[in-house]
Structure prediction request, 323 residues.
Amino acid sequence: MSTFSTTALADGGKAIALTVVFGLVLAFYPVVSIAAIAVIPIPAAYVTARHGAAAGVAVGVLAGLICLLFEPLSGLLTCLLALIAGVGAGIALRRGISQSRLMQVLVGLFFLAFAAWAGVTLLNMGMGPVAAMQQASGQLVENARQTLAVAMGQDNANAYAQDLRDSLGVAPYLMPALLLVLSSMFAWACTVLARKVFDRLRQPFPHDFSFKEFRLHYVFIYMVSIGVGCELYAYFMNAGGGVVDLVGMNLLTFSLALFFVQGLAVAHYFLSYYKVSKPKRLAVYALLMVLQMFLLMVTWMGLFDGGLDYRRRFNKDKTQSQH
Prediction:
């Protein structure tokens, strides 16, 4: 570690133990493994923020080596998350980064960790990314077909499986966008959890961000425009499945997923302003995220907020009415 003080060694030992525990959860408890992914970088980030990058690297390497002894692939992911996302976030915190910037940095760090893990996994399997995704989606469809056959009959299950197979057929070509969406989700969850942990341990953490104020940079509006342009080009030029078409699909998938989050932030702002009770608020969020009609509505609300900025206009009108 960067220092050999008793405090540094104690913090490092605790961080290694916690990282190993979460790594084993990731390996052997698939139901809660998703939550473990968001938590794994936090111990290394804490040690890095408090004692330096060398301390964080030691935590990531030692915890990863221990986890590798139990399950190689999950152990590798644990090591990469701690080393890349954990140490990277800790370095950013030492430099006094803002919370909104931290979330953006974490998106990139999670993406690098996932991409590195996927690369090693595919190399070990001896398969390309498209072939691996097709194999995984095929297995998923087959499992779904066998499960549904018992409940809805063989013919209905086969029809549903074919629809699912058609829907998943494009998934291998959307891997960059899907990885970015997953990275964004885990970056947000990791930031929220890290803030609570750092506050409890009295370690400095930025507090300049609130979800109801979340707003994407205007560059994402251009991303949507470019994606739509690519899709229109592919449609009119009969170039479906080509490079332009795939670029457009990836840009739209990633940007519209983020604009859905911005739409939720807008809804959260107004629900908070009108002091809607917490149970009713949770019910509204559940409806917005589950029903397809509301999914589209919230996404468009977030997209238009990129140009109209509802919350700024509402605050301005509210201020003028008070005078």
